[in-house]
Write a structure and sequence with these properties.
Elements: H1 2-30, H2 36-58, H3 65-76, H4 79-91, H5 95-123
Helix pairs in contact: 1-2, 1-3, 2-3, 2-4, 4-5
Length: 125
């Protein structure tokens, strides 16, 4: 258990660093005004999630999943985990549940951040 936790933590540090560098690089390349870096990270991370899930499964290398999938990709973007969850539901034929999960995740997450912003801005004013 501790070894797995250490793998996730080390991978997370790598992924978070890669996300930061990607955001900085994209902003320098394109400029501010739109979160292009985050969009790039989410799309690329989702693509990498698909690649890793298939490769690790076919190479019988699932013991690397905590480091690579949960750690590196989880640190890079949690959107990739969300994308995998939605696709897993779709592949199981649970289309309605996949749509519900996707909509609920986006809407509830936006609602949660809006609530936090409103509540805490009121506290600190």
């Amino acid at each position: 258990m501790f070894t797995t936790l250490l793998q996730v933590a080390m991978g997370g540090a790598i992924g978070a660093s890669a996300r930061y560098l990607t955001n900085v690089g994209v902003m320098r390349l394109i400029g501010p005004g739109f979160p292009w870096g985050t969009l790039a990270v989410n799309v690329f991370g989702s693509f990498l999630m698909g690649v890793l899930v298939v490769v690790l499964a076919h190479k019988n290398a699932m013991p690397l999943a905590p480091f690579m999938v949960t750690g590196i990709l989880g640190g890079f973007t949690t959107f990739s985990a969300f994308s995998l969850d939605v696709m897993t539901l779709i592949e199981r034929g649970q289309i309605n549940l996949a749509v519900f999960y996707a909509l609920a995740s986006v809407l509830l997450s936006l609602g949660a951040i809006a609530m936090a912003l409103i509540l805490l801005r009121g506290v600190f004013q």
